[in-house]
Amino acid sequence: MKLESEWESLLTDAAHPSIFMSFDYQYAGWKAFHRDDSEPFVVAVRDAAGAVIGIAPFRRSRDDGWVRWRRLDYLGSFEIDRPAPLIRLGYEVEFWRAVQGFLADAGGSWDVVRLPEMPRELVGHAREAFASSRQSFTTSPGSSAIGIDLRPSWSDFIAGHRNLRKYVRSVERKVPDLDVRLYDDPFRVLEGFEHYTQVESRSWKAGKVGVAKDARHLAFYRDLVQRLAERKRVAVRILTAGGQPVAGDITYTLGRRVFFHHATYDQARADWSPGNFLTCRLFNDYMGAGFDTGDFLCGFAEYMRPWCGLEWHTENVTITRDSMLMRMSRLVQKVKERRS
After folding, report:
1. CA 45 to CA 51: how far, in whole Å?
2. Are 238 and 247 in contact (CB under 8 A)?
3. What is the β-pairing status of strands 112-119 and 257-265?
4. Cross-strand pairs, 64
5. Coil, strand, or helix at residue 110?
6. What is the pLDDT of residue 164?
7. Residue 294 scores a pLDDT above 90
8. CATH 1.10.10.10 fits domain 4-143+313-339
9. Which end of the chain has fewer surrounding CB within 10 Å, N or C?
10. What is the pLDDT of residue 238?
11. pLDDT of residue 304
12. Share of residues in the chain with pLDDT > 90 (%)
């Protein structure tokens, strides 16, 4: 794609830098999950000198409802967390004004834009840009996520969490020959990924959720980890006990942020919670190592909250075009709501 190099250069300078909005993640998601009736609809905003100040990586498809309106979603809108257009920090006003103007001019090619889980701090500039337009801008509460401060050292962190400290010592006494294997090299990352999927197949996630819940997800993640490994943005860790894989974790990094995305463990070893033990080893690796934030994403496990002092909130944003079709659709929706 022509925009790849500009996309990548914008990523770390964005108001909301996220691995899920990287070129590799969006492209791999599009390749794996797009429907035959959808097409890329990527909006790039440039300044007067021609430099890219923002990218909205959309795809256009037809809605499944009876209206069959033309919908804009993110290019790769599956398996992502708190997505947002990439906007160079400090250019939020200019970007959203340009997007609003573009959508107004392109009125015949879209009906609705859906932006789920937009970080709350980014919504204001978008709302202001659409405030005086004929397009409808609505929001609803989104999901929340929690995170951990990675700046302290592991020793300082564990000293302040007595129960976690006791748990780690208990496992180290109870389970002999524990080791963590790291796979982050482009030539070995898929080996680690295969170990991960094998552990997942012995977990409660098997066939329900996870990276290998079906053939399409498996192909997506296999492609993704290889792409991210080429840029040194992914690590697969496998916890072994007596040489046997018992837990796995897949993390991404971007700048000073770590994204804890996937974890699994062998259900037969659940009595000593190998997934929790591997999480502690992750903290040991990342804390005091130049990272600022560990992001557990939306849908986090509640047991992690005592470790975390960071929290982020989101809003679901919907932008609709003012047209006869959309007015009829909203009227039908109101009738359905009253009947229910």
Report:
1. 8
2. yes
3. unpaired
4. none
5. coil
6. 94
7. yes
8. no
9. C
10. 98
11. 85
12. 83
> Which parts of 109-161 fold into alpha helices (H)?
120-130, 154-159
Q: What 8-state DSSP symbol labels residue 166?
A: H
Tens of pLDDT, residue by residue over 38-79, are: 899 999 999 999 999 999 999 999 877 666 788 999 999 899
Strands 39-46 and 52-62: antiparallel
Enumerate residues 6+ apart whose C-beta is below 8 A from 309.
148, 149
- Read off the amino acid at residue 247: A
Report pLDDT for 327: 61
Q: What is the C-alpha to C-alpha distance for residues 181 and 192, in angstroms, rounded to an integer?
A: 8
Q: What pLDDT does 298 receive?
A: 92
**Of the candidates 145, 137, 44, 47, the residue with the CA atom closest to the CA atom of residue 90:** 47
From the list 169, 78, 62, the residue with the least C-alpha distance to 116 is 78
β-bridge pairing 70-74 and 52-62:
antiparallel
Closest to 128 in 3D by CA, of 100, 108, 150: 100
Please check the confidence at residue 37 and state whether its pLDDT lies above 90: no
- 87: amino acid identity, one letter: I
Q: What is residue 127's three-state secondary structure?
A: helix
The CB density around residue 250, as the number of other CB atoms within 10 Å, is 24
Tell me where in the chain the CATH 3.40.630.30 domain(s) lie. 4-143+313-339, 151-291
Contact (Cβ atoms closer than 8 angstroms) between residue 195 and residue 244: no
Residue 308: helix, strand or coil by DSSP?
A: coil
The separation between the first and the last C-alpha atoms of the chain, rounded to the nearest angstrom, is: 46
Q: Which of 188, 197, 177 is nearest to 243 (CA)?
A: 177
The pTM of this model reads: 0.93
Q: Look-up: residue for tokens 């470790």?
A: 307
C-alpha span between 200 and 247 (Å, rounded): 8
Angle at CA of residue 145, ends 139 and 150, nearest 5°: 140
Per DSSP, the three-state class of 173 is helix
Q: What is the pLDDT of residues 232-279, one digit of tens each?
A: 999 999 999 999 999 999 999 999 999 999 999 999 999 999 999 999
Of the candidate CATH numbers 3.40.50.300, 3.40.630.30, 3.30.1540.20, 3.40.50.2300, the domain formed by 151-291 belongs to: 3.40.630.30
